[in-house]
Amino acid sequence: MTAVLALDSVGHTYRGSAAPVVADVSLGVEAGHSLALVGESGAGKTTLLRLLLGLARPTTGTVRFDGDPLALGDRAQMRRFRRSVQCVFQDPYASLDPRQRVSRIVAEPLRSLGVATVAEARAKVAEALEQVGLPADAASRYPHEFSGGQRQRIAIARAIVCDPRVLLADEPVSALDVTTRVKVVDLLAELKRERGLTIVMVSHDLSVVAALCEGTAVLERGRVVEQGETRDVLGSPGHPYTRRLLDSVPRLPV
């Protein structure tokens, strides 16, 4: 089966830097599956997410969407790509405009893509808010009236409102308390099942990875050192770096 999103021998070097931040990365995720990108800070996870989002061009290699090279200058392909691939950002406090009502925030992708009338957008916003577990009156309120977990639900509603096929998530629960993290992870898993979403997630939290993602790719200094099914990568790691990551997870004393 062709991967929905894939990287073929991708490398990326930021302007002014001598060394690549990611090098020779090849990975992909099939429709309806979920993939985690894990590694310590500076490993290149967020850069890979930017490449998968089409926010940066690879210095070497190819980003593929539905098997075709992603051409950032191809307006027709990029329009299809933007509707199919949406993102949930790390910080729900920073990713929502405090001056806008929730209805306008959630409808933003519909406006930018021009894919719904005003009446259709209103109905889609209501449907998205209901699906993420927020009350109907949330649409008329402002972000400051919600808790951190509720704000992340608003961000998820914005991401799913245009019925994307792929959801890219950059540390989607790291800014939340432990109890709220569990609820948001459960919500993402439910959306994946109900909508057939493909999910690519950057995370430091291996418990979140184990709960949500079928596949895992481990990055060290910009290179994938291990990848496979999550249960194998986390259960029987083959690379010393993966074992060090697992050993660094805090554990309660017995």
UniProtKB/TrEMBL annotation:
Molecular functions (GO terms): ATP binding; ATP hydrolysis activity
Alphabetical list of Gene3D superfamilies matching this protein: P-loop containing nucleotide triphosphate hydrolases
Domain ABC transporter per the UniProt entry, residue ranges: 5-246
Presence of the UniProt keyword Repressor in the record: no
A Pfam family it matches: oligo_HPY
Keywords, alphabetical: ATP-binding, Nucleotide-binding, Transport
Biological process annotations from GO: peptide transport; transmembrane transport
Alphabetical list of CDD domains matching this protein: ABC_NikE_OppD_transporters (cd03257)
Membership in a protein family: Belongs to the ABC transporter superfamily.
Protein name: ABC transporter ATP-binding protein
UniProt source species: Streptomyces antnestii
